Q: What sequence folds into this?
């Protein structure tokens, strides 16, 4: 078994691999235009957080941003197709595959824009003038405490291989989520491919996204989620769901959800204003407090932690440095094939 060593969320290690007046000040001088315009945002973030942001953005600026949301892997494929066909629709985009975004920068597909809000984010966790992380995506274990007793619940990644959990687990599909695809790679790097082969034999139900995975766990159909973006769980707990998050001592896989503007953006000025808004303190606080995401901005308020979740500073990362994320990107085709062979 490979050594599941700790990766710190250090800046160096990651880089290697309410009032209208207040809003205008916080978002780099955003102001309501005389003639409102509209733009499209392609997003791999959650639908509810996305809706929250576009609603608030319109209230602040008068500009309409409509979002199109699917998992990161499929989203990036769609963007590439649109770019090559000269039919690009989004004026802003976010997904959790930093390696791919870096490749797009080299190809000239990403607009250079230095948001005034960038300075609030760790210098080594952004590519100056191109992209900045809007949150950190941690993929964890979770369970429904109405169906699984806390003392009996899995505590380690290896516990998911216990025969008693066969047919009782649900997981998000790596073919839909860049963060889950990276997590699949991280678990194989940490525990070996044999671990995932054994896990696949546990009759795991695969759902296309963390939203569907969450609902399956909440309903009790499959009371344990083996791979889920934990901010979905945090939001559900805040609404009364009796769920618990498990962050094993070995660490949890994590990725960066990054935002940028395409070079061929149909509405680049709205794209710039939206990036300023997304990186602002108010927008970051809204997502943390209402939707459970984890922000890297230096002045956000502490996030409310549901049972089992740790603060960002206390999270131990599992094979999730930037080099590890780059490895996931460069081996994406192989990883997709391996996942398909195991779970499809």
A:
């Amino acid at each position: 078994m490979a050594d599941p060593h700790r990766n710190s969320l250090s800046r160096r290690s990651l880089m290697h691999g309410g009032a209208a007046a207040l809003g205008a000040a916080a978002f780099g001088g955003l102001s309501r235009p005389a003639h409102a315009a509209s733009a499209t945002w392609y997003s791999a973030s959650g639908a509810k957080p996305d809706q929250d942001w576009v609603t608030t953005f319109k209230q602040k600026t008068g500009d309409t941003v409509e979002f199109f949301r699917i998992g990161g892997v499929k989203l990036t494929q769609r963007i590439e197709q649109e770019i090559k066909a000269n039919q690009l629709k989004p004026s802003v985009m976010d997904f959790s595959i930093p390696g791919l975004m870096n490749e797009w920068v080299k190809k000239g597909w990403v607009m250079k824009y230095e948001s005034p809000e960038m300075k609030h984010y760790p210098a080594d966790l952004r590519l100056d003038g191109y992209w900045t992380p809007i949150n950190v995506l941690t993929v964890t274990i979770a369970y429904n405490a109405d169906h699984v007793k806390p003392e009996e619940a899995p505590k380690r990644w290896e516990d998911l291989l216990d025969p008693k959990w066969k047919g009782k687990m649900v997981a998000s599909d790596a073919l839909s989520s860049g963060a889950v695809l990276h997590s699949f790679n991280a678990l194989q790097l940490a525990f070996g491919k044999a671990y995932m082969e054994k896990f696949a034999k546990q009759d795991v139900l695969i759902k296309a996204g963390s939203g569907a995975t969450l609902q399956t766990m909440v309903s009790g159909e499959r009371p344990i989620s083996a791979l889920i973006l934990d901010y979905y769980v945090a939001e559900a707990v805040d609404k009364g769901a009796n769920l618990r998050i498990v962050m094993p001592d070995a660490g949890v896989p994590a990725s960066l959800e990054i935002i940028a503007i395409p070079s061929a953006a149909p509405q680049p000025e709205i794209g710039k204003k939206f990036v300023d808004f997304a990186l602002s303190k108010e927008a970051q606080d809204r997502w943390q407090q209402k939707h459970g995401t984890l922000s890297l901005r230096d002045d956000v308020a502490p996030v409310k932690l549901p049972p089992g979740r740790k603060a960002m500073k206390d999270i131990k990362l599992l094979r999730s440095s930037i080099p590890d994320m780059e490895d996931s990107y460069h081996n994406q085709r192989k990883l997709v094939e391996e996942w398909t062979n195991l779970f499809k």
In short: The two ends are 25 Å apart (CA to CA).
